Model the fold of this input.
Amino acid sequence: MSLAIRAARGFDGASARLLENILVLVEDGRITAVECGRTETPPGSEVVDLGDVTLLPGLIDAHVHLGFDASRDPVAQMRADSDATLLLRMRLAARRALAAGITTVRDLGDRNYLGLALRDWFRQGDELGPEIIAAGPPITITGGHCYFMGGEVDGELELRRAVRSHVKAGVDVIKIMATGGHMTHGTNPGLPQFTVAEVRAGVEEAHRLGRTLTAHAHGPSGIAVAVEAGVDCVEHCSFRVDGTRKPDWELISRIAAAGIAVSPTVGSPGPLTESFVPILARMHQQGVRIVASTDAGISPQRPHDALPHAVGFLAGCGMSNNEALAAATSVAAAVCGVGERKGALQAGKDADLLAVGGNPLADIRALLDVRAVFRHGMRLT
Ligand SMILES: [Zn+2]
Done:
């Protein structure tokens, strides 16, 4: 099936200048050409004229939990659900993300590998869903953060074994809980759960098996463990200890020097996130690769279509609008290991596209004015 999509403007996934009067040619779900000012269309292709819109690469949320339902107590809901019910809930969450133009989500924690089941279901093509990059149950310590998802291990050997069994089950990425978390009673977000040697063992196994490893970490001592162990990405990286932020500027320099990405899981600006702004601004200044992510599902403030708000938040942290958009497209694609296929308006990439009214480089809120979404060249109705 070939498609010729016209749009008044286009964002390529990185540049500060929009492309004008673009024609995007799509063949079998893939972009074959992006041209400016071309008037004729190839014979036999279906022409879709989107008019006065900006066409962007589909957005990528680098941290979601499809299994959390964005209620006041998503943990209780998940624990009450059977696997069958939970899978249906995850399907709804995924569809909600897709409708907002979020064509790829990285699910960093499910139960019983349900995220993989949903990933494979959408991949079969009977139903349109976002591409899911799935971690399966996060690896944690006994009684540790999100232990109820089933990924409890202790010690280096069990950690290695867990990485191997996750890869055997078919995960795309390894997620490890380097500190406690706010959602799990009895854990301490301010302190490490694993030693450097343990996390390093996980990184070694993951890399040996061709996977990246990303670490959940809040407190600076836990972030330091993750950085020392050589993880690929730090989730949250909030520097939160006992309800306050304790930024460690030297540690931020080390994150930048090591080329470790940061996935700050933010939503709309609020009193809790305000203190995060100078920390993220410093990271950006130092050249840390920051990806847009939300932790979607964890609360009513983080529904599964929250990513445009996260992009807006990043634009308030010293990033220009095109840099904040890159954090949700080209940079996110690279960090999530799908840079070959996603994140850019470019020949060879998957035809995962989002059309919005207005110009998001001038006003980021334009992202909320969704006019069309394409996933693998198919238009979501
Ligand atoms: Zn999370």
In short: The CA atoms of residues 19 and 189 lie 44 Å apart.
